[in-house]
Amino acid sequence: MPDLTFLSIARKDSATAARNHPSKLKSWFTNLYARASSASHPPTPSRHLAQGPADAQMQSQLVSALPLEIRRQIYEHVLDSYGTVQHILLCNGKLTHMRCVMPSAHSYFQTYIARPGVCDTYDKTYRQSVRNGWEIVPLLLSCRQVYVELISMLYSYTIFRFPVSAATRFIATVPVPYLALSHLHISFPLFSPMYLPFRSSRFGFTAANSRPKSDEAEWEAFWGAFARVRLRVLHVEILDHGVRVPEQALLGPLRQLSAGEFEVVLPWPVGLQTSGEFGDAGFSVRRPPEGTNMMLEIHVEKGYPGVRNGRRVSERLRWR
Q1: Domain count across the chain
Q2: For residue 199, what are the domain limits?
Q3: Distance CA 283, CA 40 (A)
Q4: 286, β-bridge pairs
Q5: 87 close to 98: Cβ distance less than 8 angstroms
Q6: What is the pLDDT of residues 4-36, one digit of tens each?
Q7: Does residue 17 lie in a domain region?
Q8: How far is CA 128 from the centre of its chain?
Q9: Mean pLDDT for the chain?
Q10: Would you tell me which of 90, 195, 196, 253 could form a disulfide with 249, CB atoms 3.0–4.6 Å apart?
Q11: Domain DUF7730, which positions (predicted)?
């Protein structure tokens, strides 16, 4: 049990002091009360003084001394150092982000194999190189006025690059007013032969082993979530994994979307059996430049019946 004898000693000393020096003790308590009151209750400003804002945050030098135009320039400088291109990932069920270290190196029609050479967001070395992207959060939490002024700039000034899994969570959690300001770049690797008849294709996929109907439902639900908001900029990049699908059916769910700038990048050239025309769609379609073949070929090396040296022979992917 803690020693509380100091409290009784203090009371005895106070009583003795009150008997010996009543006026001094009264004066001491009066001054103490006045100091405590002034600390917890700021004095009412005089009517002859300029009435400042009641909120102490508004009295800071950043807000009170600098005009909004200058503050915006400061915020832009902070956002530049933070990274204007951010990779948004889904890690353990939560959204995380990392600054793109080479935003100018990204271009369309890079092979899927070449992309890790630009930004490999799952590589440990890459993750170490982008550790300085956290400083924007303390700034947003430092002041309500700074948050109000900065948060819309953050969404309109930053390019967000997603895989589909992270984009789903992002759309579900970010408020619609901020989504409307956003510039989103979504990459979708096409593994499943969606919108194809239920039969084995020449690539070895079947309705049984690829669950195309389930994938189609997820694909349509994903784009249905976007229909509730008009985005500022939306770029959708389809990555080819050897699956040719009917383009009209694949991009049909995207027709319900709207964006100030809306572009879909396809890896397939014009003239394929699955090609489509999208002149009446609300988005533009970009294809590989003439002479560039981004189509993925799958070659199956066949030796003995599916086995070589005790191991199954797997499919090899080759870009040409």
Answers
A1: 1
A2: 65-319
A3: 60
A4: 265
A5: yes
A6: 333 333 334 444 544 554 444 344 334 434 444
A7: no
A8: 19
A9: 69
A10: 195
A11: 56-288
Give the residue from 259, 183, 170, 165 showing the smallest Cα distance to 219.
165
Paired tokens of 13? 């000393």
- Per residue, the 3-state secondary structure of the chain, as one string, reads CCCCHHHHHHHHHHHHHHHHCHHHHHHHHHHHHHHHHHHHCCCCCCCCCCCCCCCHHHHCHHHHHCCHHHHHHHHHHHHHHHCCEEEEEEECCEEEEEECCCHHHCCCCCCCCCHHHCCCCCCHHHHHHCHHHCCHHHHHHHCHHHHHHHHHHHHHHCEEEEEHHHHHHHHHHCCHHHHCCCEEEEEEEECCCCCCCCCCCCCCCCHHHHCHHHHHHHHHHHHHHHCCCCEEEEEEEEEECCCCCCHHHHHHHHHHCCEEEEEEECCCCCCCCCCCCCCCCCCEEECCCCCCCCCEEEEECCCCCCEECCEECCEEEEEC
**Buried-exposed string 205-239: b where 16+ CB fall within 10 A, e elsewhere:** beeeebebeebbeebeebbeebeebebbbbbbbbb
Q: Does residue 234 register a pLDDT over 80?
A: yes
Instruction: Note the pLDDT tens digit of each residue in 158-176.
Output: 999 888 888 888 988 899 9
Q: Are 153 and 79 in contact (CB under 8 A)?
A: yes
Which residues 6+ apart lie within 8 Å of 186 measured at CB? Answer: 162, 163, 164, 167, 234, 235, 236, 237
Residue keyed to tokens 């229909």:
227
In a domain? residue 14: no
User: Which amino acid is residue 115, in one-letter code?
Assistant: R
Q: Is residue 8 assigned to a domain?
A: no
pTM, entire model: 0.65
Could you tell me which residues are beta bridge partners of residue 307? 312
The structure tokens listed for 25 are 């003790």
